[in-house]
Each structure stands twice: as structure tokens, then as C-alpha cells.
Fold each of these.
Amino acid sequence: MMAKKKLISIVGDAFADIYCYLEEETPHVVVGGDSRLSQPMTTRAGGSGINTTTHLCSLINNFGINDDATFQVNFQTVINENDAYGKLLASHAKSHGFNLLNRRVSDYPSCFFGSSEESIISGGKSSGHCAVIVAKGERSFMTHLGCLEDFRGSHILDESINAHNDLKHVHVSGYFNIPGFWNGELKNKLAEIKKRNEAITISLVPQHDASENWDGGLLDVLEHVDFLILSEVEAKGIIKHTNSAAQSFLECAATFFHEKCPNTHVIVTLGSDGCVHAYEGAMEKVETVKKDPIDPTGAGDAFTAGFLYGFLGYMAQNKDKSVVKSHALKMSMLWGCASGCCCVMLDGASLPPEKEIMEKVLKDILTINEAEGVKPPSEER
């Protein structure tokens, strides 16, 4: 009998990112004004989902998971495969070795009612695309969802149904970028997946909420989520934290999430200050190395990929899957910090670092955290 295929399923957003790098002399976009760019605009694959998938595939290809490089990563999203943006995203997936599963549905109004260029322009929805404004080490986004707004939680393919798959993990990226996941849509699908196989672990990244409401039923979804990974800005938005609060932000976050989702491990990324794991009201911090960023876009997605890589490595080598041990989470956060740090040193959110660079940064992070129990792959073999 043929062995089952070990599978990681990533579900989420994909955009064609149009990069605009502002000159240092004019670092701000002014409404009604004119800003100068330091280099020509470029278009690359982007979006939390496709960024995370790309970085995770790179880690698996470079290091394997406990010497096992047979893990397959599938990415579910919605694109218009007939327009230039959709073709760019499909080409990116092919070149980085993962399957892009376009979850459009024929019985729902979307971008796929014609394949000719004329029909696409006149009525069909384009693939999602985003203007990325980069200035002084920070970035801002202006996003058009396009046909991504037609993606529904019910459209997600439960890949555990396939008898040939051994689905290990489901990761959801860009919750707030996909309105069709809100208010019970995603929750119901994740409940189905967990009911079919409760050993499957699930993680979620909310991303920034352009509406600034920070709701969409997210807290209800976390009932079925093992790991919530979010930035400091996203966490503050969700917990409605103000600087005047008696507790520190991290203390407030640990208390809030323990009350709202006590079974969910919460990882808050803090940029150059590392990250924090909050669970059962307690916190553990991991430091990272500080680098001068070339492009901060996608650093959070790269962190997520590193975290998932570290966690899946732990799960692959331990028979007892019922308890997530602190060592596993420490290892996962160290990998996440290394991957995120490497990302900011490169130009583009979906460009993985070379293996040697990743190894060097990981060694540096292990040193500053005195993490003697976690070794780089080159020393484990």
C-alpha cells in the first residue's frame, strides 16, 4: 500500500503587490500632492497566505522536517487565473514548489463567467492586488480585494477527506482580508475539520483590519484554533488596549486571551523586540537579533512560516501529540524569529533567504536566548 502523503494546508489571501519605494527626501504620501519614488515600481506575489506558504516551502526544502522532505504544502485561495495578476500568482506558486488550489465555485457570482479579455475587463472581477508604499523602514497598503471577496468559509477544501492524505496542520492567513470567513463561516468549517480528526492542529493569522472594527466573529473562531499568531498592532486592536490601562499591553493581552480563548496558544510578534507566547495567563518571551531593515513587508508571514516549521518538526519526532510542550513552542518561536529577521533583510515579502543566511541568523538568535537545547539543522544531523 502506498504511504499517505503528509500534508500542510494553508488557506488565505493572495495579492499581486505593487511596490512603491519613496525617496528619503519625500517619505510621506500627501493627498493631493506628488511623491517621488527611489526606483521603478515592481509587481510581486504577496498577501499573508502566499507569503507564508512560500517561506514554509523554502524551509522544508532546505532543511526537511527531521530529515523528511516529503511534506507537501497546498495553498487554497481565490484568484482570477485569466488576468495578469492571477497569472503572476500562479507562476509564483509553481516556481516555489507548492500547489495553488483556486477555490472559486461555479454556482457563486465571481470573476469566472468568461475567459476572454473583453469579458474580464467589462464585468469580471480581477485578482486581488495591493499598492505597497515603503518608506523609512515601514510600509502601508492600499488593497483591492477583487474576486478574493467571493471566498467563503464553506468553499475551503477539507483535505483530510482524501484517503491518500495525512493532513497534519491547517493554517488560515489573512482572516480580516476575507469577509467571507467572518461571522461563523470559517468557524463552521474548522469545526468540521476538527470533528473529523481532532489530532489536526490549526493556526490562524488575523492580519490588519482595514475597517478598524477588529471583530468579524474572530474570537468565536478561536474555539477551534490551537495557535493565534498576530502582531502587536493587531493584538492591541483586538483587545481594545489603550496606553492608559493599568496593566501593560502584554499583561492585558495574556489576561484577555486566557479569558476569551483559554485553549489557544497566543503568539504576539514584537518586531525587533522578538515575540511573546501567552497561555493560561502566563507569558514567555524570545529575543531576536536586530537588523537594519531593507523591506519590512512580509516579516510577520515569514515569522509564521518559521514558527510552523519548528512546531511541525517537533510534532514529527514525538509520539505524544496530546500535549504541546513548552520546549516545542520555544523552538517554534526561535525559528519564527530567525525567519522573520531574514525576511526584513531582503527586498520583497515572498522572497525566501538562502539556507546559509538562515542558519547564521538562527545561530545568533539561539546565542542571545541561551537556547542550548535547540540546534540549527546542520548540527542536528
Amino acid sequence: MPKKKAANKKDDVLEADPVLKRFATGYTKRTTGVGKKPLQGVSDAIKQAVAAGTKVQQIVISGEELKDESTGSSRLEVVLVALRETGYRAVRVLLVMNTEVAVQDTLVLAQHLEQQHDLTSLELLDVSLPPFSCRCLGQALTHNKCLTSLTLDFNRFGAEGVRLLTLGMAVNDTLRKLSLRYCCIGPDGGEHLGTVLAVYTLSELFLDGNQLTGEGCAALAKGLCDNGTLSLLSLQDNNIDRFAAEGRDGVAAVRALQSALAVSPLDGLRIDLMDNTLGDDGGNAVLAMHASRKEAGLPPIYVRVDPRMSAAVYASIGKLTKWKGGGGGGKKKKGGKKKGTKKKKK
């Protein structure tokens, strides 16, 4: 008798999940069928899902050229069209990094966000995103009610990109996390970011590595007056130690935060000011902010600061924060070692 053909795990998994099979088959036909090369990140995601017997929930595209050399069309578009036309709605995270996302790519991505509400997290990292692309994404968020996290780190679109991004977000109430780290946002971006805080229901805003300075931070702080949802505001390494135009220190920025939060009901808000040289004056302003909220009977707010200030002021802030390190690093022994640190054996 002829031997039975060995069972193929891939075929078994795909037969058990007909929608995944439709997506895998549909994507293959839309690429190899017309002479296009499939994106390795998409192929890997399908293979990993088949091997694990699960769904494709995350697609990571790293370092791959998105423009098809033969036709000039977007290879990203092929993926998104295959997802929509095959009805595959399991993908929750799309991460594109270390490549160039052209305006054409952003347009098809914005169209997908408007038409198919399945992604909950979109990350475009170091993809040379221009300001116009920010406008496309912002307009898409007007219609999208599923995306909760948007990360656009390491793109040099500056304050103009922030302005265009926020233009189309006025009616979005689902986005919870917005990350704009190292995006060349200068002092002018502070006002637009303040609008984000005042209007949108964000819980986390990451702005590390920009150049807001004290001026931009003071403008941003105004938006906190009307915010009732924020739990984390990260402003690390923003040159808040001085005003760019006037050469003043960053104390005014901290005082602006204090003024904005004087009557805010925010409970447990964490503000990260690491890698900004506030000095003793800035540190004392942080302490004054804590004291004024306590006196008013408001919930505490925790501020993490850079240790470039006197040990006494730094320690006082440390007693008021739940953060480890940066203004809350625990007690130190003589010689600068923290309590509980073991000595290395020679």
C-alpha cells in the first residue's frame, strides 16, 4: 500500500484558520503574481503565526525598501489592501522602522486607518516622516476609533509636523499614548502640544530629546489646566535649563507647571524632567509645587529631576516621588553608594 503523505503543519494551521489562509494566499498573489517582492517582515509574521498556531497580531517591517523599484508603487499598500480585501482583522500592531516612509506610503496608511479599524498601535520609527505626512495621519485619526497608541519617534518634522498632526485630531477620543521623541520640536511646538493636552484624552505623552526649552515647556504647561486624564508627561533632555531667546534659566518653566497644576484634579501625574539642568532654583520650584497642592488638599504629583542640584534639595524631592533614581533614588551611604549595594569582589 502507498504511504500516506505526511501531514503538513502549515496546511493544518491554515485550514483551521480560513481567514489567515485567505490573507496569506491573497498577499502572495498580490506580490509574486505581478512580479513584486513580498516584504520580509510580513512573510516572517505569517510564518511565525503558522509555527505557533496563532494569529498574526503584529507586523514588523525594519530596514526594507517600501517603494517597488519596477512599478514605483508602495509595497506597504499591497499589505494593507490584502488585509482589507481578505477581511483579516487580527493585526493589532504595525511597526515600521529604519527605512523611508514616503508621502504615498502615508496616504495609503491613513486610508487604512480610516477604513479598517483594527490597529491599536502604530509605530513609525526613524522613517524620515515629513510634516505633510503628519497631517495625513492626523486627519485619519478624525475617523479612527480604534488606535490607542501612536509613536513617531526619530522623525525630524519639528513644530510644523506637530501643528499639522494636531489639526485633524480634534474629535479623536481613543488615543491614549502619543510619543514624539527626538523629532526636532523647538520652543514653537510648545503651544501646539499644549493644545494636545487641553483637548485630547491622552494618558501618556513622551517628548524626550527635543528642544522645547523653558519657553516651550511653559507654553505646553497651559494645556494642563484643562486636562483630566494625563498620567505621564516625559520631558527628558529638552534643554529646559534655559530660555533659548533670553538666556534665562528653567525655573519659569517649572513655575508655569506649578501654576497650571495649582487647581488641577490630576491624581498621581508623573512628570519626568531628567537631563534638564534645573539647579537649586528649579528644584525649589518643584518643592513649592508639591507644597501648594498639599495645602490645597489636591492629590500628589510626582516629579523626577536631574541630580545637578544641591544634595539637600535633590533628597527633599526624592522623599516626595515614587520614582527610583532622579529625585527618588533611595538613601545613600557614605561614598555615594545606595543602601543595599553589594561590594564587588576583587
Amino acid sequence: MMTYYVCRCLFSNNIFLKQYNLHVTYKDEEQFKHDYLQILRKRGCNTEEKIQEACGEIQREISRRRHLGEESLRRKDIISSHYVPLHPEIYHLKEEYLASEFLALVQACKANKSASLEEIFDRIKVEKAERVYTFPIFTEEFCRLFVEELSHFEDSDCPKGRPNTMNKYGVLLNELGFDEDFLTPLREHYIAAITSLMYPDWGGASLDSHKAFVVKYKLGQDTDLNYHYDNAEITLNVSLGKTFTGGELYFGDMFRPRETSNQNARFTEISHVPSIALLHRGQHRHGASPITSGERYNLIIWMRSSAVRNACCPMCFEEPDLVPTVGFGDGFTKQTETVDVCIV
């Protein structure tokens, strides 16, 4: 069985302070103040008390990250022992859950042996944002059952892990039991056919792990998503429902670690409707505008290629300093064959 790893930068880099809309790196308090005190003061963190509160928030997040693997296993064991699914049948991928347009797209991608992508572009929508594509993926009936299952789990007494640094509400799907018989075959047998053609230069033909979660937006909870990039080579984002207004996605520029952020970047807005998948490069920066009513669920799959990230960590942009973990970790392995797409 393959062993996966995280990069040690997980315990110091890309920590999000939502109150100040700022991602930070934290080695110690002295370095933190040196690097961020000026910008924090401009954003309202202008007293020693507020600075200490920010440091405390960062230290709690670092502690959470250090225990991610063991805590995830603990929750998964409790869930598998105590949770009774509402729709157990949907934990196993079946083609009847997939939209006919998606099945036709996958078949066309698998049959495509030439350099021409004209037939593929007839079956996929090319969005105005660069190399962002949308297409139907699930049936509306499956989306309904999936959201019902998620709501049922939310109402249970089982422990629930936080999807990521930026989202407080949602579900880690590996803990709920969707990885082995649903998400892994979906990635390997269907999505990979598309990504290998659309993103050959971003590891699209060598995706070998993923992190999948559902995020939830609701008034009084998380309502939007700040501008960011993903810890993924390629991201699949599926709108599941329910009924909501607002919440448009917007895309800006690619993240480039050696360049100053472009404050004048132009944003391309995309309306995301239920049962539609949106595919993009992980380092293509994006966000979500606030919902104005209703409730919204999105399935996010961060797809990783160890052949790409083993050469260069997409979060610290250095050769990864590997730390063993459980499950897929952050998709790093100790295999020596790599593909260099690191932007320096």
C-alpha cells in the first residue's frame, strides 16, 4: 500500500486569518510581527491585545494541523461504528448517478487519439476565465440524495472535521466513507480521462490522490469564500444545491510565488448551478461571492499528482520536506519520477 506524506510547511505556511483576510506564515512571534505587523495594523489589528489574539488563533490552527491524521482516524472510526446512513446506496458509484452528457464527454476523451480537441470542446463549455471548463456531471436526483445524506449526517451526534482553513462548515468525505467506492473510482475511471487531455502540463495524466470535501454556505454561517488558490494540481468543484441566490464564483490570475500580487487583476465571474462541475488548475486564484439567501452545498475535489508535487510543494514552492501521515495526506510520495511544473 502506498504511503503518502505532507510537506512540513503545512505546520507554518498558508494560515488564514479570516478577520483580516490574510494568509500568513508563522515560524515564531518575532518573525510574524516583523513580516505582518504593518499590514495587520492597516486592517484593524492595531492593539497588542488583538495581535496576541491573532497569534493565539494561529497557534491553535498549527496544533490542529499537527494532529490532523490521528484526529481524522478517530472521527472516521466513530462515524463507521455509530452513523447510520440515510441513503447507503449512494456510497458506491454507479453510472446511473452520472449525467448522460458527462458519460459522453468521458467516452470522447478516452477515444481521442489525435492532437485535435474539437470534439471535446463540442461537449464541454469553455468559460471566459482561462482554462476553466464546466459540464454536467451528476443527475439532479443524485444531487438531491447526496444533499439529503449530508444534511442527515450534519444532524447526527457524530464528530465532524473542518474541511479546510477557510471553511468552517462542511464534511470531510473520506471520514464519512465516500473515498474507496465512490470518489477514487470517479477520479480514476472518469475525471482522469478529461484532465489528461485538458491539463497535460499540470499533471492531468498522473493524478493519483485527492482530498474531497463538501462546503456549506448559509446566512449566519459561512456565506462566502475569500480569494485564494488550492493545494491541488487540478480542482473539481460541483454545485449540489440546495436553493440559493448570489454566491457567484470569480477567477483572477494564477498564483506566482516570486511575484507581488496583482492588485489590479481582472476577475471573471461564473454562475454555478446545481449538478454542474467546474474544472480548473489549483493555482488559478478564485473566490466565491456571498450568498444572499438560501443554502448552498458544493463538492470540492482537490486532485493531486505526486509526480508533480514531489518535485515542488505547491504551498511553499520548495522541494517538499516530507512528514509521514495517514490516508492520502497532501499527496506527496517518495517516488523519484517527477514532472516539473513549479512556477519560480
Amino acid sequence: PHFKLAFSYRITTLMKFLTPLSWLTLPLLSQSYFTPPPPTSPATSLPNKLYEWRGQNIRYQAAGPSNSPNTVLLIHGLFVNSDHWRYTLSGLSEAGYRVYAIDLLGSGYSSKPPRDSPAAQSLCGERARFASDTAILKGIELGTAAGGLRLADVDLRHPLDSCYNFFTWSEQISDFTRDVIGTASRTTLVANSIGTISSLQAASDNRSLFDGVFVVNPNFRELHSAEIPFSTLSMPVLRVVQRLLRERGQGLFDALATPETVKEILKEPYAVTEAIDDTLVSVLLDPLLTPGASDVVFDTLSYSAGPLPEQQLQKMEDCPVWVCYGDKDPWTPSRRVEKLKDLKSVQRVIRLEGVGHCPHDEAPHLVNPLILEFLKEIGRGTE
């Protein structure tokens, strides 16, 4: 019975967070959607820049000395964008680092090609990576909410063959590093939530580009087929819910598309509710109201596959990783995060008291010093 309750709670929690975002859908068109960002970010006062990646526009921000050899790339979480790093951009750049933050494909002000369009299909990072018999990893050791271990099969491929997957985003991260940041020295990745998975994948695939990963609250993908209890029975039900959201969810999203609703929703992941100011609500909500954004949201809600943190970290023994997390995070089980210390690549796990899923925005005075300590530890100090 407790498994059923846990499954029900996870579905309810996710839908409570995502329902207000449904205001997003527009008709599927053949072209790639792109809405130019404002010249300057309201959250950071930094100029918004564009990087052309495989025919798509990628929005990014940069701060700090342009000639600094010490570079950091910030990777955001689910349904947010580079503005979510407003305090990290300022904190690290003031310490002498060159810091970049990007909007992943489909997020923020980056391009949003429709899933089935030729442009999107050509971008899909899964296509060249998997043969039909290599997309499922058998018997992978994963954690549990209680801090234990279990074996599960991990399905890596997006069920809709969508380009909005962690392998596409990891390729975007690596290409941005080569093309914009440069390869004179290696870059450090800092990631929040599901941005962790794209970052770990990029670091795993391209060790010559990256010297470490600092994780702010990992995400274990509650709706992944390897995470849902009794998946044989529950996944068909979940697939129906996902399909209904793709086909009929727009009206509900539209009805709840208000700053007041978004502010209330953010009070679930944010334990420090004072951090939820009007600027935060605006910079998260405005890009989600642009053409094409709703399709990406519904697509992502159907992504019950892809790599998982423990599976990735088991193959990254030569890449230093630190993890910090808020002890009030309602979505990330603390015991499972603590268990990551048993993996060779994870050098430290730091518990932050009184903060939730987004400590970098809720309590930057706690997170920025830890990132700086990590950078010095792996030899990226500016002194």
C-alpha cells in the first residue's frame, strides 16, 4: 500500500507544479519557433546573446572577465531558463570567473522546433547513439528514497522520438563549450535539478572539455519508467495521462496562466518563499508564453525515459563531482542524495538546512561559497 501512496503522491505533486504551466500550447507548425529575448535580462541586467547551433538560436548570458582562463557553464532545470542563475552569475563573476548560462533547446528564449519537424528530427541526440537493442540498460543499480539500493532496467530513449532529450542537450552543452567558451582550458559545469543529467552526460562524453560537475539538488526523475513502482501496471496508465495532456491540456494551462498562480506553485519547491519575487515569476513565466513553448512542456512530461544520475555517475570515476541539496526539497529524497557519496566520482555531498529544490536562488549565500570551494579544489581558483 505504501508504494501506491508514494506513486499517487508523486503524480499529484508533479501535476500540481505543472498544471499552471499549461498555458503554453500553439498549433504544431513545420517551422522552428523562436521568440527573440529582450536586449537585457531583467533578472541579471546582462545582455542577452544568441548562439547559432545547428540552425537553431540558443540564448545565453555571460559575466565576468572575458580573458579569465577560469570558466564555468551553468545548466538550468525543468521549465526554467538561464535567468534562474541570477545570483550565481553575479556571485561567481565577482570572484573573477568567466561565467556562462544558457537556455537549453526548447527552454527560455532558445528555439523550439516542433517535435516531428525535419529540423527537430535532425537535432535528436538519440538517433546516432542507439541501435534498437542498445536503448535499454539491464540491471542498473539505482538508489531508493530510503537510502537503499535496487536493480532496474533503464530505458534511455524518448518514447516519442523527440529531440527534447538529455542526449540532445548534452551535445548542445558540449558544442557551446567548444564554439563559444573555447577549449584553451577545461570548463566546470554547475547544474540544478534535471540539468544535472544533461551535464553529467556531457562530462561523461567529453572529458577533455570539462573538469568537474557541481550539482545543486539532483533530480531522480519521478516519472521515469525505472522509478515508478509496479511500472508494468502503472506505465500504461501514465502514458494515457501523458497523451491526454498533449492532446487536451491546453485549455487548463491557459486558464491558470497568471503570475499569481505561478507564484503560488513556486512555493512548493521553494522553502525560502521570500525568494519568490516578481522578477523571478516574470522571467520564468514570460518565455513559457512564447510560441512553441507549450509543445515542449507537454513533450517533456511524456519523457519517462533517459539516463539517471546513479547510472551516469557509475561511469565517471575520473570526473570530480560535488552535490549540495536543500533538506526541505519535496521532490529529492535526502537519503537517496546522501547515498551518492558511495560512488567514486562523488567527492562530497553537502546538506543545506532550511532550503528547498533551488538553493542557488533561495540561498545563494550558502551555495556560491560551495561552488567557489569546489572550483579551487579542482584547480580552478582565480588566486
